Amino acid sequence: MSVASAPSIADQFQHLKVTIGNSTIEVPKGIDPTTFETIVRILKDQC
């Protein structure tokens, strides 16, 4: 007997919206952490 489980909240989302200052970016699920850190650093410098 197998029991099906509902998808987790994380599995239901395909991207995350990040807003810094007046800039908003959509970060895709599974993005490389180094790339994400670089994007955030650039946005912080520009805002």
Task: Outline the structure in words.
The chain is an alpha+beta fold. It has one domain. The protein has 2 helices and 2 strands. It has helices at 9-12, 33-46; strands spanning 15-20, 23-28. It has a two-stranded antiparallel sheet. A hairpin with a 2-residue loop joins strand 1 and strand 2. The protein is flat, with a radius of gyration of 15 Å. The mean pLDDT is 74.
Average pLDDT reading: 74
SS class: alpha+beta
Shape: flat
Specify the helix fraction band. Answer: 25-40%
* SSE run: HEEH
Uncertain runs with pLDDT below 50, 5 residues or more? none
Proportion of β residues?
A: 25-35%
Distance between the termini: 55 Å
Rg over alpha carbons: 15 Å
Strand elements, count: 2
How many separate structural domains?
Answer: 1
Reading side by side through the largest sheet, how are the strands ordered? 1-2
Total count of helical runs of at least 4 residues: 2
Biggest β-sheet description: 2 strands, antiparallel
